[in-house]
Amino acid sequence: MKRLVIIFSALAGWLVAGQSCTKNDQATPGAAISFRRPANFPVAAYNFEENTLTKAGFELGHKLFYEDALSADNSVNCGTCHQPFAAFANLDHSVSHGINNCFGTRNAPPLFNLAWQKDFMWDGGVGHIELSPLNALTNPCEMGNTLDRITATLSQTAPYPELFREAFGSPVINSQRLFKALTQFMGMMVSASSKYDKVMRKENGASFSPDEQEGYRLFQQKCAVCHQEPLFTDGSFRSNGLDGYSKDPGRDTITATGADRGKFRVPSLRNIELTRPYMHDGRFLTLEAVLEHYHAGVKQSPALDPGLKKNPTPGIPLTPKEQSQIISFLKTLTDNEFIHDHRFAEL
Amino acid sequence: MKTFIFRAAFGVSLACILFSCKKTGTTPVITGTGKVNLEFQHVVGSQALQLNTQTYTNANGDDYKVTTFKYYVSNFSFLKADGSKVSIPESYLLVNAADNASALQTIENIPAGDYTGVELTLGVDEARNFAGAQTGSLDPAKGMFWSWNTGYIFLMFEGTSSKSSQSANQLFFHVGGAKDPANAVRRTVLTFPTVLRIRSNSDPDVHIYTDVSALFKGKTTISFAAVSGFHGGANGLLVADNYVNGLLRVDHIHN
Questions:
Q1: Are residues A147 and A101 in the same domain?
Q2: Does A183 lie in the same domain as A77?
Q3: Is the pLDDT confidence value at A26 over 90?
Q4: Is A103 within a domain?
Q5: Given A190, A210, A230, which residue is the final one in a domain?
Q6: In this structure, are A130 and A219 located in the same domain?
Q7: CA pair distance B122, B236, nearest whole angstrom
Q8: Where are the domains of chain B?
Q9: Which domain holds residue A120?
Q10: What are φ and ψ of residue B237, in 5° steps?
Q11: Mean pLDDT value of segment A133-138
Protein backbone atom coordinates (compact mmCIF):
# COMPACT_ATOMS: atom_id res chain seq x y z
CA MET A 1 0.00 0.00 0.00
CA LYS A 2 2.68 2.44 1.05
CA ARG A 3 4.59 1.81 -2.13
CA LEU A 4 1.49 2.45 -4.16
CA VAL A 5 1.03 5.78 -2.39
CA ILE A 6 4.61 6.72 -3.14
CA ILE A 7 4.22 5.83 -6.78
CA PHE A 8 0.99 7.76 -6.94
CA SER A 9 2.54 10.80 -5.25
CA ALA A 10 5.43 10.71 -7.67
CA LEU A 11 3.02 10.47 -10.56
CA ALA A 12 0.97 13.36 -9.20
CA GLY A 13 4.15 15.39 -8.74
CA TRP A 14 5.11 14.67 -12.31
CA LEU A 15 1.68 15.73 -13.54
CA VAL A 16 1.92 18.98 -11.57
CA ALA A 17 5.39 19.63 -12.94
CA GLY A 18 4.07 18.98 -16.42
CA GLN A 19 1.27 21.46 -15.90
CA SER A 20 3.60 24.17 -14.71
CA CYS A 21 4.95 24.39 -18.25
CA THR A 22 1.70 26.05 -19.24
CA LYS A 23 2.06 28.67 -16.51
CA ASN A 24 3.18 31.37 -18.87
CA ASP A 25 0.36 30.81 -21.31
CA GLN A 26 -1.54 34.08 -21.09
CA ALA A 27 -4.62 32.76 -22.83
CA THR A 28 -5.51 30.27 -20.12
CA PRO A 29 -5.37 31.60 -16.57
CA GLY A 30 -3.83 28.46 -15.16
CA ALA A 31 -4.55 24.82 -15.75
CA ALA A 32 -7.79 23.50 -14.31
CA ILE A 33 -7.83 21.31 -11.23
CA SER A 34 -10.87 19.57 -9.94
CA PHE A 35 -12.81 19.33 -6.73
CA ARG A 36 -13.77 15.74 -5.96
CA ARG A 37 -16.69 14.77 -3.80
CA PRO A 38 -15.80 11.79 -1.59
CA ALA A 39 -18.05 8.80 -2.34
CA ASN A 40 -19.63 8.89 1.13
CA PHE A 41 -20.30 12.67 1.07
CA PRO A 42 -23.37 14.59 -0.10
CA VAL A 43 -23.24 17.22 -2.84
CA ALA A 44 -21.26 20.26 -1.67
CA ALA A 45 -22.91 23.64 -1.00
CA TYR A 46 -20.14 25.51 -2.81
CA ASN A 47 -19.57 24.34 -6.36
CA PHE A 48 -16.80 26.67 -7.67
CA GLU A 49 -19.10 27.52 -10.60
CA GLU A 50 -18.38 31.23 -10.30
CA ASN A 51 -14.83 30.71 -9.12
CA THR A 52 -13.26 28.32 -11.58
CA LEU A 53 -10.66 26.19 -9.85
CA THR A 54 -7.23 26.46 -11.38
CA LYS A 55 -3.82 25.34 -10.23
CA ALA A 56 -2.66 28.98 -10.30
CA GLY A 57 -5.70 30.14 -8.30
CA PHE A 58 -5.34 27.38 -5.73
CA GLU A 59 -1.61 27.97 -5.29
CA LEU A 60 -2.18 31.72 -4.94
CA GLY A 61 -4.75 30.96 -2.24
CA HIS A 62 -2.23 28.68 -0.55
CA LYS A 63 0.42 31.42 -0.54
CA LEU A 64 -2.05 34.04 0.70
CA PHE A 65 -3.23 31.74 3.50
CA TYR A 66 0.29 31.77 4.97
CA GLU A 67 1.06 35.42 4.11
CA ASP A 68 1.96 37.62 7.10
CA ALA A 69 1.43 40.74 4.99
CA LEU A 70 -2.29 40.18 5.30
CA SER A 71 -2.06 41.31 8.94
CA ALA A 72 -1.73 44.96 9.91
CA ASP A 73 1.72 44.55 11.49
CA ASN A 74 3.05 41.64 9.43
CA SER A 75 2.99 39.38 12.45
CA VAL A 76 0.32 36.77 11.79
CA ASN A 77 -1.26 34.89 8.91
CA CYS A 78 -4.30 32.64 8.55
CA GLY A 79 -2.16 29.64 9.46
CA THR A 80 -1.18 31.21 12.78
CA CYS A 81 -4.58 30.34 14.24
CA HIS A 82 -5.41 27.59 11.74
CA GLN A 83 -2.49 25.18 12.12
CA PRO A 84 -2.20 22.14 9.86
CA PHE A 85 -1.27 19.74 12.68
CA ALA A 86 -4.41 20.83 14.56
CA ALA A 87 -6.60 20.19 11.51
CA PHE A 88 -6.32 23.94 10.99
CA ALA A 89 -7.62 24.84 14.45
CA ASN A 90 -5.42 26.54 17.05
CA LEU A 91 -3.88 23.94 19.33
CA ASP A 92 -3.97 24.73 23.05
CA HIS A 93 -5.39 28.21 22.50
CA SER A 94 -8.78 28.63 24.11
CA VAL A 95 -9.39 31.81 22.11
CA SER A 96 -7.57 33.28 19.13
CA HIS A 97 -4.48 35.39 19.70
CA GLY A 98 -4.29 38.25 17.23
CA ILE A 99 -2.03 41.22 16.60
CA ASN A 100 -0.82 43.40 19.48
CA ASN A 101 -1.25 40.42 21.83
CA CYS A 102 -4.98 40.86 21.62
CA PHE A 103 -7.09 37.86 22.63
CA GLY A 104 -10.44 37.32 20.98
CA THR A 105 -13.50 35.84 22.60
CA ARG A 106 -13.90 32.60 20.68
CA ASN A 107 -11.98 29.45 19.82
CA ALA A 108 -10.57 29.31 16.29
CA PRO A 109 -12.49 26.55 14.49
CA PRO A 110 -10.74 23.87 12.45
CA LEU A 111 -10.89 24.28 8.66
CA PHE A 112 -11.96 21.38 6.48
CA ASN A 113 -14.95 20.35 4.39
CA LEU A 114 -15.86 24.04 4.17
CA ALA A 115 -17.39 23.53 0.73
CA TRP A 116 -20.24 21.70 2.51
CA GLN A 117 -20.69 24.41 5.14
CA LYS A 118 -23.42 27.03 4.72
CA ASP A 119 -22.93 29.17 7.81
CA PHE A 120 -19.57 30.23 9.13
CA MET A 121 -18.28 31.36 12.52
CA TRP A 122 -19.62 30.08 15.86
CA ASP A 123 -22.70 32.26 15.52
CA GLY A 124 -23.23 31.67 11.79
CA GLY A 125 -22.85 35.38 11.07
CA VAL A 126 -21.12 34.73 7.77
CA GLY A 127 -23.27 33.12 5.12
CA HIS A 128 -20.79 32.43 2.33
CA ILE A 129 -17.41 30.69 2.21
CA GLU A 130 -15.89 33.42 0.04
CA LEU A 131 -16.48 36.02 2.74
CA SER A 132 -15.47 33.78 5.63
CA PRO A 133 -11.94 35.28 5.85
CA LEU A 134 -13.23 38.88 6.02
CA ASN A 135 -13.81 38.98 9.74
CA ALA A 136 -10.36 37.60 10.64
CA LEU A 137 -8.65 39.95 8.19
CA THR A 138 -10.32 43.09 9.53
CA ASN A 139 -11.10 42.38 13.18
CA PRO A 140 -8.80 44.64 15.26
CA CYS A 141 -8.19 41.71 17.58
CA GLU A 142 -7.24 39.28 14.84
CA MET A 143 -5.33 40.49 11.76
CA GLY A 144 -6.44 44.10 12.20
CA ASN A 145 -6.11 45.13 8.57
CA THR A 146 -8.34 46.77 5.97
CA LEU A 147 -9.13 45.33 2.56
CA ASP A 148 -7.81 48.48 0.87
CA ARG A 149 -4.48 48.19 2.69
CA ILE A 150 -4.19 44.49 1.91
CA THR A 151 -4.83 44.91 -1.80
CA ALA A 152 -2.52 47.93 -1.95
CA THR A 153 0.25 46.02 -0.15
CA LEU A 154 -0.09 42.96 -2.36
CA SER A 155 -0.14 45.14 -5.48
CA GLN A 156 3.28 46.46 -4.49
CA THR A 157 4.74 43.13 -3.42
CA ALA A 158 6.34 40.78 -5.94
CA PRO A 159 5.41 38.20 -7.04
CA TYR A 160 1.73 38.86 -6.25
CA PRO A 161 0.76 40.90 -9.34
CA GLU A 162 2.22 38.11 -11.48
CA LEU A 163 0.47 35.41 -9.42
CA PHE A 164 -2.87 37.21 -9.72
CA ARG A 165 -2.32 37.49 -13.46
CA GLU A 166 -1.70 33.76 -13.69
CA ALA A 167 -4.79 33.05 -11.62
CA PHE A 168 -7.23 35.60 -13.02
CA GLY A 169 -5.84 36.75 -16.36
CA SER A 170 -4.66 40.23 -15.34
CA PRO A 171 -2.48 41.58 -12.52
CA VAL A 172 -5.36 43.55 -10.93
CA ILE A 173 -5.58 42.82 -7.21
CA ASN A 174 -8.91 43.56 -5.56
CA SER A 175 -10.75 42.08 -2.62
CA GLN A 176 -12.91 39.88 -4.84
CA ARG A 177 -9.86 38.17 -6.30
CA LEU A 178 -8.28 37.89 -2.86
CA PHE A 179 -11.38 36.14 -1.54
CA LYS A 180 -11.77 33.93 -4.59
CA ALA A 181 -8.16 32.74 -4.41
CA LEU A 182 -8.41 32.05 -0.67
CA THR A 183 -11.65 30.17 -1.33
CA GLN A 184 -10.02 27.98 -3.96
CA PHE A 185 -7.53 26.96 -1.30
CA MET A 186 -9.97 26.61 1.58
CA GLY A 187 -12.65 24.91 -0.47
CA MET A 188 -10.22 22.21 -1.57
CA MET A 189 -9.42 21.31 2.05
CA VAL A 190 -11.39 18.09 2.16
CA SER A 191 -10.96 15.72 5.06
CA ALA A 192 -12.43 12.35 4.09
CA SER A 193 -9.60 9.86 4.60
CA SER A 194 -10.04 8.97 8.26
CA LYS A 195 -10.33 5.40 9.44
CA TYR A 196 -14.08 5.99 9.74
CA ASP A 197 -14.26 6.94 6.05
CA LYS A 198 -12.28 3.87 5.04
CA VAL A 199 -14.56 1.64 7.06
CA MET A 200 -17.63 3.28 5.54
CA ARG A 201 -16.24 3.00 2.03
CA LYS A 202 -15.01 -0.53 2.73
CA GLU A 203 -11.52 0.42 1.58
CA ASN A 204 -8.82 -2.22 1.89
CA GLY A 205 -10.85 -4.22 4.37
CA ALA A 206 -10.73 -1.44 6.99
CA SER A 207 -12.70 -2.26 10.11
CA PHE A 208 -13.34 -0.88 13.58
CA SER A 209 -11.92 -2.48 16.71
CA PRO A 210 -14.56 -3.85 19.12
CA ASP A 211 -14.33 -0.68 21.28
CA GLU A 212 -14.56 1.58 18.24
CA GLN A 213 -17.51 -0.41 16.94
CA GLU A 214 -19.32 -0.16 20.26
CA GLY A 215 -18.41 3.52 20.44
CA TYR A 216 -19.89 4.01 16.98
CA ARG A 217 -23.12 2.33 18.08
CA LEU A 218 -23.31 4.57 21.16
CA PHE A 219 -22.46 7.61 19.07
CA GLN A 220 -25.29 6.88 16.65
CA GLN A 221 -27.65 6.39 19.54
CA LYS A 222 -26.68 9.42 21.65
CA CYS A 223 -24.80 12.01 19.59
CA ALA A 224 -25.76 11.69 15.93
CA VAL A 225 -28.88 13.84 16.00
CA CYS A 226 -26.71 16.97 16.11
CA HIS A 227 -23.43 15.51 14.86
CA GLN A 228 -24.89 13.98 11.71
CA GLU A 229 -22.82 11.74 9.49
CA PRO A 230 -20.93 11.99 7.27
CA LEU A 231 -19.97 15.63 8.04
CA PHE A 232 -20.59 15.06 11.77
CA THR A 233 -22.69 18.21 12.07
CA ASP A 234 -26.20 19.07 11.01
CA GLY A 235 -25.15 22.70 10.60
CA SER A 236 -27.72 23.90 13.14
CA PHE A 237 -27.32 26.23 16.12
CA ARG A 238 -27.92 24.73 19.52
CA SER A 239 -27.20 25.22 23.18
CA ASN A 240 -25.45 22.25 24.76
CA GLY A 241 -25.90 23.60 28.25
CA LEU A 242 -22.48 25.05 28.96
CA ASP A 243 -23.93 27.87 31.09
CA GLY A 244 -27.18 28.78 32.76
CA TYR A 245 -26.71 32.26 31.32
CA SER A 246 -24.25 32.47 28.46
CA LYS A 247 -21.87 35.42 28.63
CA ASP A 248 -21.46 35.11 24.86
CA PRO A 249 -24.84 35.67 23.16
CA GLY A 250 -23.79 33.25 20.39
CA ARG A 251 -26.44 32.88 17.71
CA ASP A 252 -28.45 35.66 19.32
CA THR A 253 -25.77 38.10 18.10
CA ILE A 254 -27.23 37.47 14.65
CA THR A 255 -30.91 36.79 15.25
CA ALA A 256 -31.36 39.24 18.16
CA THR A 257 -34.49 37.42 19.28
CA GLY A 258 -33.32 36.71 22.80
CA ALA A 259 -34.23 33.05 22.31
CA ASP A 260 -30.88 32.13 20.79
CA ARG A 261 -28.58 33.22 23.59
CA GLY A 262 -25.97 30.56 24.21
CA LYS A 263 -26.66 28.71 20.97
CA PHE A 264 -23.65 28.02 18.75
CA ARG A 265 -23.06 26.27 15.46
CA VAL A 266 -22.80 22.50 15.99
CA PRO A 267 -19.14 21.80 15.18
CA SER A 268 -18.03 18.81 13.12
CA LEU A 269 -16.43 16.05 15.14
CA ARG A 270 -14.03 15.13 12.37
CA ASN A 271 -10.40 15.43 13.53
CA ILE A 272 -11.72 16.21 17.02
CA GLU A 273 -8.73 14.42 18.58
CA LEU A 274 -6.49 17.13 17.08
CA THR A 275 -8.45 20.29 17.73
CA ARG A 276 -8.35 20.77 21.49
CA PRO A 277 -9.39 22.78 23.42
CA TYR A 278 -13.11 22.41 22.84
CA MET A 279 -16.30 24.52 22.76
CA HIS A 280 -16.76 28.09 21.48
CA ASP A 281 -14.58 29.43 24.26
CA GLY A 282 -12.16 26.53 24.47
CA ARG A 283 -13.14 25.73 28.05
CA PHE A 284 -12.60 21.95 27.88
CA LEU A 285 -9.05 20.77 27.39
CA THR A 286 -9.76 17.08 26.76
CA LEU A 287 -12.36 14.88 25.11
CA GLU A 288 -12.87 13.22 28.48
CA ALA A 289 -13.94 16.59 29.91
CA VAL A 290 -16.36 17.07 27.02
CA LEU A 291 -18.00 13.67 27.52
CA GLU A 292 -18.18 14.29 31.26
CA HIS A 293 -19.96 17.58 30.52
CA TYR A 294 -22.64 15.78 28.53
CA HIS A 295 -22.94 13.17 31.26
CA ALA A 296 -23.17 15.42 34.31
CA GLY A 297 -22.38 19.06 33.51
CA VAL A 298 -25.27 20.23 31.34
CA LYS A 299 -26.97 23.32 32.77
CA GLN A 300 -30.58 24.31 32.31
CA SER A 301 -31.38 27.43 30.33
CA PRO A 302 -34.31 28.53 28.18
CA ALA A 303 -32.29 27.86 25.03
CA LEU A 304 -31.02 24.41 26.10
CA ASP A 305 -31.47 21.94 23.27
CA PRO A 306 -34.59 19.75 23.70
CA GLY A 307 -32.47 16.68 23.01
CA LEU A 308 -30.61 17.35 26.27
CA LYS A 309 -33.81 17.81 28.28
CA LYS A 310 -35.21 14.32 27.91
CA ASN A 311 -34.20 13.17 31.37
CA PRO A 312 -35.01 14.71 34.78
CA THR A 313 -31.36 15.67 35.00
CA PRO A 314 -30.38 17.44 31.75
CA GLY A 315 -27.71 15.82 29.61
CA ILE A 316 -26.86 12.38 28.24
CA PRO A 317 -26.15 9.72 30.86
CA LEU A 318 -22.96 7.87 29.93
CA THR A 319 -21.05 5.34 32.01
CA PRO A 320 -17.26 5.79 32.15
CA LYS A 321 -16.93 2.78 29.86
CA GLU A 322 -19.37 4.23 27.36
CA GLN A 323 -17.51 7.53 27.44
CA SER A 324 -14.22 5.84 26.68
CA GLN A 325 -15.77 3.78 23.88
CA ILE A 326 -17.24 6.90 22.29
CA ILE A 327 -13.81 8.53 22.49
CA SER A 328 -12.29 5.46 20.81
CA PHE A 329 -14.75 5.93 17.99
CA LEU A 330 -14.13 9.70 17.79
CA LYS A 331 -10.43 9.01 17.29
CA THR A 332 -11.30 7.10 14.11
CA LEU A 333 -12.33 10.49 12.70
CA THR A 334 -8.71 11.67 12.73
CA ASP A 335 -7.48 12.17 9.18
CA ASN A 336 -3.69 11.98 9.10
CA GLU A 337 -3.58 12.07 5.32
CA PHE A 338 -5.40 15.40 5.41
CA ILE A 339 -3.20 17.09 7.97
CA HIS A 340 -0.05 15.92 6.19
CA ASP A 341 -1.28 16.76 2.70
CA HIS A 342 1.54 18.80 1.15
CA ARG A 343 -1.01 20.84 -0.86
CA PHE A 344 -2.10 22.53 2.37
CA ALA A 345 1.24 22.58 4.20
CA GLU A 346 2.72 25.64 5.83
CA LEU A 347 4.90 27.65 3.46
CA MET B 1 -72.10 36.55 -41.62
CA LYS B 2 -70.95 37.97 -44.89
CA THR B 3 -71.64 41.44 -43.61
CA PHE B 4 -69.56 40.69 -40.55
CA ILE B 5 -66.62 39.56 -42.64
CA PHE B 6 -66.93 42.61 -44.80
CA ARG B 7 -67.09 44.85 -41.77
CA ALA B 8 -64.15 43.14 -40.18
CA ALA B 9 -62.11 43.43 -43.34
CA PHE B 10 -63.03 47.06 -43.59
CA GLY B 11 -62.05 47.60 -39.99
CA VAL B 12 -58.69 45.93 -40.48
CA SER B 13 -57.91 47.87 -43.61
CA LEU B 14 -58.96 51.10 -41.91
CA ALA B 15 -56.66 50.27 -39.03
CA CYS B 16 -53.87 49.57 -41.51
CA ILE B 17 -54.39 52.92 -43.14
CA LEU B 18 -54.47 54.67 -39.81
CA PHE B 19 -51.36 52.98 -38.55
CA SER B 20 -49.47 53.42 -41.78
CA CYS B 21 -50.31 57.12 -41.70
CA LYS B 22 -48.76 57.26 -38.26
CA LYS B 23 -45.69 55.36 -39.37
CA THR B 24 -44.97 57.61 -42.27
CA GLY B 25 -45.40 60.68 -40.03
CA THR B 26 -42.66 62.83 -38.56
CA THR B 27 -41.85 60.72 -35.48
CA PRO B 28 -38.91 58.46 -36.30
CA VAL B 29 -38.74 54.95 -34.83
CA ILE B 30 -36.57 55.08 -31.73
CA THR B 31 -33.80 52.48 -31.73
CA GLY B 32 -30.52 51.79 -30.02
CA THR B 33 -29.53 52.45 -26.44
CA GLY B 34 -28.56 55.52 -24.50
CA LYS B 35 -27.44 56.64 -21.08
CA VAL B 36 -28.65 58.81 -18.26
CA ASN B 37 -26.73 60.81 -15.70
CA LEU B 38 -28.12 60.70 -12.19
CA GLU B 39 -27.20 63.72 -10.14
CA PHE B 40 -27.82 63.39 -6.43
CA GLN B 41 -28.17 66.55 -4.39
CA HIS B 42 -28.24 66.05 -0.64
CA VAL B 43 -30.63 68.11 1.41
CA VAL B 44 -32.17 68.20 4.87
CA GLY B 45 -35.74 69.28 4.28
CA SER B 46 -35.42 72.56 2.40
CA GLN B 47 -31.76 73.17 3.29
CA ALA B 48 -28.65 71.91 1.52
CA LEU B 49 -26.81 69.23 3.49
CA GLN B 50 -23.60 70.51 5.03
CA LEU B 51 -21.62 67.75 6.65
CA ASN B 52 -20.08 68.22 10.11
CA THR B 53 -20.89 71.89 10.64
CA GLN B 54 -24.58 72.60 10.25
CA THR B 55 -27.09 71.76 12.99
CA TYR B 56 -30.51 70.50 11.90
CA THR B 57 -33.70 69.65 13.76
CA ASN B 58 -35.59 66.41 13.21
CA ALA B 59 -39.38 65.99 13.19
CA ASN B 60 -39.26 65.25 16.92
CA GLY B 61 -37.55 68.59 17.60
CA ASP B 62 -34.17 66.99 18.33
CA ASP B 63 -30.99 68.73 17.16
CA TYR B 64 -28.46 66.83 15.03
CA LYS B 65 -25.41 67.16 12.85
CA VAL B 66 -24.50 64.83 10.02
CA THR B 67 -20.96 63.46 9.67
CA THR B 68 -21.54 60.51 7.30
CA PHE B 69 -24.29 59.83 4.80
CA LYS B 70 -23.94 56.97 2.31
CA TYR B 71 -26.43 54.66 0.65
CA TYR B 72 -26.97 52.09 -2.08
CA VAL B 73 -29.52 52.53 -4.85
CA SER B 74 -29.82 49.56 -7.15
CA ASN B 75 -31.76 47.42 -9.61
CA PHE B 76 -33.08 50.27 -11.69
CA SER B 77 -36.16 49.68 -13.84
CA PHE B 78 -37.20 52.54 -16.11
CA LEU B 79 -40.96 52.91 -16.54
CA LYS B 80 -42.91 53.81 -19.66
CA ALA B 81 -46.29 55.49 -19.94
CA ASP B 82 -47.86 52.24 -21.16
CA GLY B 83 -46.93 50.52 -17.90
CA SER B 84 -44.04 48.51 -19.32
CA LYS B 85 -40.63 48.64 -17.68
CA VAL B 86 -37.06 48.13 -18.70
CA SER B 87 -34.80 46.59 -16.06
CA ILE B 88 -31.12 47.45 -16.07
CA PRO B 89 -28.93 44.54 -14.98
CA GLU B 90 -25.97 45.13 -12.71
CA SER B 91 -27.10 48.60 -11.67
CA TYR B 92 -25.70 49.04 -8.17
CA LEU B 93 -24.77 52.60 -7.21
CA LEU B 94 -23.16 53.69 -3.97
CA VAL B 95 -23.71 57.37 -3.23
CA ASN B 96 -21.68 59.16 -0.58
CA ALA B 97 -22.57 62.71 0.42
CA ALA B 98 -18.89 63.35 1.20
CA ASP B 99 -17.74 62.33 -2.26
CA ASN B 100 -18.80 64.60 -5.12
CA ALA B 101 -17.81 62.05 -7.74
CA SER B 102 -20.28 59.54 -6.31
CA ALA B 103 -23.10 62.09 -6.48
CA LEU B 104 -22.96 62.08 -10.27
CA GLN B 105 -23.33 58.60 -11.72
CA THR B 106 -24.21 57.30 -15.13
CA ILE B 107 -26.37 54.34 -16.10
CA GLU B 108 -25.66 53.08 -19.59
CA ASN B 109 -27.26 50.67 -22.05
CA ILE B 110 -30.82 51.83 -21.49
CA PRO B 111 -33.03 51.08 -24.51
CA ALA B 112 -33.87 54.35 -26.25
CA GLY B 113 -37.38 55.52 -25.44
CA ASP B 114 -39.49 57.89 -23.42
CA TYR B 115 -39.73 57.16 -19.72
CA THR B 116 -42.08 58.49 -17.10
CA GLY B 117 -40.40 57.21 -13.97
CA VAL B 118 -37.94 54.81 -12.42
CA GLU B 119 -38.34 51.99 -9.93
CA LEU B 120 -35.34 51.19 -7.75
CA THR B 121 -34.20 49.37 -4.65
CA LEU B 122 -33.02 51.33 -1.65
CA GLY B 123 -30.25 48.98 -0.59
CA VAL B 124 -29.06 45.73 -2.16
CA ASP B 125 -31.29 42.82 -3.12
CA GLU B 126 -31.27 39.66 -1.04
CA ALA B 127 -29.53 37.51 -3.67
CA ARG B 128 -26.55 39.82 -3.95
CA ASN B 129 -26.24 40.08 -0.18
CA PHE B 130 -25.42 36.38 0.00
CA ALA B 131 -23.73 35.78 -3.34
CA GLY B 132 -20.10 35.71 -2.24
CA ALA B 133 -17.27 38.13 -2.94
CA GLN B 134 -18.35 41.07 -5.13
CA THR B 135 -16.45 43.91 -6.74
CA GLY B 136 -17.05 47.45 -8.01
CA SER B 137 -19.51 49.44 -5.88
CA LEU B 138 -20.32 46.22 -3.99
CA ASP B 139 -16.69 45.59 -2.95
CA PRO B 140 -16.71 45.08 0.85
CA ALA B 141 -13.69 47.41 0.89
CA LYS B 142 -16.18 50.27 0.40
CA GLY B 143 -16.98 49.95 4.09
CA MET B 144 -20.67 49.25 3.51
CA PHE B 145 -20.51 45.57 4.41
CA TRP B 146 -20.79 43.89 7.79
CA SER B 147 -18.10 41.33 8.47
CA TRP B 148 -19.68 39.97 11.67
CA ASN B 149 -23.12 39.40 10.13
CA THR B 150 -22.44 39.39 6.45
CA GLY B 151 -24.53 41.54 4.21
CA TYR B 152 -24.54 45.10 2.97
CA ILE B 153 -25.20 48.23 4.96
CA PHE B 154 -27.88 49.74 2.75
CA LEU B 155 -27.76 53.18 4.27
CA MET B 156 -25.31 54.65 6.74
CA PHE B 157 -26.14 57.82 8.63
CA GLU B 158 -23.77 59.01 11.32
CA GLY B 159 -23.74 62.22 13.27
CA THR B 160 -24.25 63.69 16.71
CA SER B 161 -27.16 64.95 18.76
CA SER B 162 -27.35 66.43 22.24
CA LYS B 163 -30.21 63.99 22.81
CA SER B 164 -28.09 60.89 22.11
CA SER B 165 -27.12 58.78 25.10
CA GLN B 166 -24.21 57.22 23.18
CA SER B 167 -20.64 58.18 24.06
CA ALA B 168 -19.74 61.63 22.66
CA ASN B 169 -23.43 62.10 21.76
CA GLN B 170 -22.95 59.98 18.67
CA LEU B 171 -25.67 58.89 16.30
CA PHE B 172 -25.09 55.83 14.13
CA PHE B 173 -27.90 54.48 12.01
CA HIS B 174 -26.69 51.53 9.93
CA VAL B 175 -29.67 50.16 8.03
CA GLY B 176 -29.29 46.72 6.48
CA GLY B 177 -30.34 43.10 6.54
CA ALA B 178 -32.00 41.17 3.73
CA LYS B 179 -33.57 38.29 5.63
CA ASP B 180 -36.75 38.16 7.66
CA PRO B 181 -37.48 39.19 10.35
CA ALA B 182 -35.07 42.09 9.75
CA ASN B 183 -35.40 42.58 6.01
CA ALA B 184 -34.71 46.25 5.25
CA VAL B 185 -34.68 45.95 1.45
CA ARG B 186 -37.18 48.52 0.14
CA ARG B 187 -38.32 49.20 -3.39
CA THR B 188 -39.63 52.59 -4.44
CA VAL B 189 -40.93 54.38 -7.55
CA LEU B 190 -39.80 57.87 -8.49
CA THR B 191 -42.08 59.66 -10.92
CA PHE B 192 -40.44 62.03 -13.36
CA PRO B 193 -41.93 65.55 -13.50
CA THR B 194 -41.36 65.53 -17.27
CA VAL B 195 -40.63 62.73 -19.68
CA LEU B 196 -37.06 61.42 -19.74
CA ARG B 197 -35.95 60.90 -23.32
CA ILE B 198 -33.24 58.30 -23.75
CA ARG B 199 -31.62 58.41 -27.17
CA SER B 200 -28.42 56.95 -28.53
CA ASN B 201 -27.05 60.43 -29.16
CA SER B 202 -28.27 62.33 -26.09
CA ASP B 203 -26.93 62.90 -22.61
CA PRO B 204 -29.89 63.56 -20.30
CA ASP B 205 -29.65 64.32 -16.58
CA VAL B 206 -32.06 63.32 -13.85
CA HIS B 207 -31.67 65.60 -10.89
CA ILE B 208 -32.51 63.79 -7.66
CA TYR B 209 -32.88 65.32 -4.22
CA THR B 210 -31.91 63.01 -1.37
CA ASP B 211 -33.46 64.18 1.88
CA VAL B 212 -31.73 63.09 5.11
CA SER B 213 -34.70 64.25 7.19
CA ALA B 214 -36.81 61.47 5.61
CA LEU B 215 -35.10 58.96 7.90
CA PHE B 216 -36.67 60.43 10.99
CA LYS B 217 -40.30 60.98 10.03
CA GLY B 218 -43.14 59.44 8.08
CA LYS B 219 -44.35 56.19 9.55
CA THR B 220 -42.50 56.66 12.84
CA THR B 221 -41.16 59.91 14.27
CA ILE B 222 -37.69 59.12 15.55
CA SER B 223 -36.58 60.48 18.89
CA PHE B 224 -32.80 60.47 19.28
CA ALA B 225 -33.23 59.90 23.00
CA ALA B 226 -34.88 56.57 22.15
CA VAL B 227 -33.04 55.60 18.98
CA SER B 228 -29.46 56.78 18.73
CA GLY B 229 -27.45 53.90 17.33
CA PHE B 230 -28.03 50.54 15.69
CA HIS B 231 -26.53 48.07 13.25
CA GLY B 232 -29.50 46.60 11.39
CA GLY B 233 -32.34 44.94 13.25
CA ALA B 234 -35.74 46.34 14.24
CA ASN B 235 -34.68 49.99 14.45
CA GLY B 236 -33.34 49.73 10.94
CA LEU B 237 -36.77 48.62 9.78
CA LEU B 238 -38.38 51.67 11.40
CA VAL B 239 -36.00 53.93 9.55
CA ALA B 240 -36.31 52.04 6.23
CA ASP B 241 -40.11 52.28 6.46
CA ASN B 242 -39.70 56.00 6.98
CA TYR B 243 -37.32 56.74 4.13
CA VAL B 244 -38.91 54.47 1.53
CA ASN B 245 -41.37 57.24 0.71
CA GLY B 246 -39.32 60.36 1.19
CA LEU B 247 -35.61 59.76 0.74
CA LEU B 248 -35.45 60.36 -3.01
CA ARG B 249 -37.38 62.78 -5.18
CA VAL B 250 -36.77 63.70 -8.82
CA ASP B 251 -36.67 67.47 -8.93
CA HIS B 252 -36.19 67.99 -12.65
CA ILE B 253 -34.88 66.48 -15.85
CA HIS B 254 -32.60 67.91 -18.53
CA ASN B 255 -33.14 66.04 -21.75
A1: yes
A2: yes
A3: no
A4: yes
A5: A190
A6: no
A7: 13
A8: 32-254
A9: 55-190
A10: -65, -40
A11: 96
Check B132 against A134: CB less than 8 A apart.
no
Residues A74 and A132 in one domain: yes
CA A54 to chain centre: 21
The total number of structural domains in chain A stands at: 2
Among B131, B135, B149, beta carbon nearest to A174: B135
Of the residues B148, B230, B237, the best mutation for testing chain A's interface (the one with the most A CB atoms within 10 Å of its CB) is: B148
**pLDDT for the residue numbered A32:** 79
In a domain, A168, yes or no: yes
Instruction: Report ipTM (2 d.p.).
Output: 0.84
**R_g (Cα) of chain A, nearest Å:** 21
Within a domain: A275: yes
Among the residue ranges B3-17, B188-202, B240-254, the one predicted with the least confidence is B3-17
Confidence of residue B10 (pLDDT cuts 50, 70, 90): very low
**Predicted local distance difference test score (pLDDT) of residue A96:** 86
In this structure, the strands spanning B151-160 and A237-238 are: unpaired
Domain boundary among A173, A190, A207: A190
Alpha carbons within 13 angstroms on the beta-carbon side of residue A174 total: 14
Contact B124/B93 with Cβ under 8 angstroms?
no
Least Cα separation, residue A96 to chain B (angstroms): 16
